[in-house]
Specification:
The chain is α/β, with parallel strands linked by helices and 246 residues long. The protein contains eight helices and eight strands; from the N terminus they run ααββααβααβαββαββ. Strands 3-6-7-2-1-8 form a six-stranded mixed β-sheet. Strands 4-5 form a two-stranded antiparallel ribbon. The longest helix has 23 residues. It is globular, with a radius of gyration of 20 Å.
């Protein structure tokens, strides 16, 4: 390769890196439809607004107790497109739009006026459900932590709840297989003892991951008060046998 060819190759690589960095800061294509012009175009913003249908449910836990669960919308239409862009395509700019859905869910949440079992309000803490280690390595970030920071302006403890063994991808697994896959797979930090917790998920399908998270935090004497999620999968997320609708 000639000196000029090497110089041109370096220039091309630098230009490509600059374009990619600029796209992260100010994306030039819509994450919803691919149209030129920004992170999310006007029509796709309208679709996202129209998708908002908050729902409050009571998720039945393994011991028969109920956990309030609020979701902002159904996992359909533009919502799975944006979730996939955020989680699997490196579109960190999409976090701001998904954060809006998380805030909708949080706004619908109703906590008891007096915290149970002497939980101090100052001890109330957001805990995102952890991702599989291999997924975090592939993405390069913890999407749940980023979502909480974008939605609520808080930095969550990345060690509050973690996955301690290799898991299969939950996508495509049956209800029973999902439950078996995550059972006993999470560990919570002892620091959470006596803290009231709001668990944060992205998409609730069968509720298996939420139930496992509740089991793990209860093991260290933390107190799960409720859960919020961006979306619910209507096909099996919260069957009438496992939830009561409010």
């Amino acid at each position: 390769m000639t000196t000029r060819a090497r110089r041109d190759a370096r220039f091309a690589a630098a230009s490509r890196a600059l374009r990619e960095s600029a796209a992260l800061v100010a994306p030039v294509w819509c994450a919803g439809c691919g149209a030129f012009g920004g992170s999310l175009c006007g029509p796709c913003r309208g679709l996202l607004r129209d998708a908002i249908r908050p729902r409050t449910e009571l998720l039945t836990l393994a011991d028969g107790r109920m956990l309030p669960l609020v979701t902002a919308c159904a996992y359909e239409g533009i919502v799975p497109v944006l979730v996939n862009a955020f989680k699997e395509e490196g579109r960190l700019d999409v976090a701001r739009w998904l954060a809006g859905l998380a805030r909708v869910a949080a706004g619908e949440l109703s906590l008891p006026a007096s915290a149970p079992d002497g939980v101090a309000r100052r001890a109330l803490e957001l805990v995102p459900l952890p991702s599989r280690a291999q997924a975090v390595r592939r993405r390069g970030y913890r999407h749940g932590d980023l979502l909480c920071r974008e939605a609520f302006g808080v930095r969550v403890d990345p060690h509050a709840l973690r996955v301690t063994r290799v898991l299969e991808d939950q996508a495509g697994l049956s209800r029973a297989a999902r439950a078996a896959n995550v059972h006993g797979a999470m560990r919570a930090s002892p620091r959470l003892a006596d803290h009231g917790l709001i668990l944060v998920d992205d998409v609730v399908t069968t509720g298996a991951s939420l139930r496992e998270a509740v089991r793990a935090v209860c093991e260290v004497d933390a107190i799960p008060l409720a859960a919020i999620a961006i979306a619910r999968s209507e096909r099996s997320a919260t069957s009438r046998e496992e939830c009561r609708f409010e």
